[in-house]
Amino acid sequence: MKLLLLEDDIDYNATITQYLQSLGYVVESYENGEEALDAVYEHNYQLLLLDIRVPGINGYDILKQLRSEGNEIPIIFITSLTDIDNLSIGYELGCNDYIRKPFASKELRYRIEQVLKQFYFHSNSERIALWENYSYDIKAQQLYKEEVSILLSKREQEVVEYLVQHLGKYISIMELWQEIWEAKDITEADIRMCIHAIREKTQSAFIVNKRGIGYKIDRRR
Hints:
The chain is an alpha/beta fold. 42% of the residues lie in helices and 20% in strands. It starts with a strand and ends in a 5-residue tail after the last strand. The chain has eight helices and eleven strands. It has helices at 10-22, 33-42, 59-68, 84-93, 105-120, 154-165, 173-179, 188-201, and strands spanning 2-6, 26-30, 47-51, 75-79, 97-100, 127-129, 134-137, 142-145, 148-150, 208-210, 214-216.
């Protein structure tokens, strides 16, 4: 999963980034609030880790702007603020959790895992709940229809996982070509055939297409 980190303390930024990368997360870090907010609009993230007091736009204002636009991406504040009035502001604006400096690396890990599970996963399982009664187990790299596993080829599985990692957002053929096929010499027709094969094994509406925009899988509502 891809995370955004906003932390203006250079040492904290580097330490957190390195630790999360060691856990397998893709992390893009920023020290300025305006640059971080621009990145949210330009890229797809599954979680935002935001310091509150940073140059440019502060963490509260980033949260307020995203929520006002209907963006429900999970947000955890990383802060040295301890006053209950300050903490309540974030919760009232719609943050998912706080972690107070200084903190142990394991605490950050557990808080991230808990927020991701609450937002993307159903019940206490490790499966992400998808459209209709489909679900995807990230650890097992397995797609399910209710409790029945669906056999996918390696490339089909990679496409499903990438779309699951960007739930509800259209991914262009160009991005799939770059990220899944690593810009190898294939045609758009090859990618569309892969999408068609996945739909044949699921349902035609499992992967949504918007002409000229791309493909997406929706999260269960």
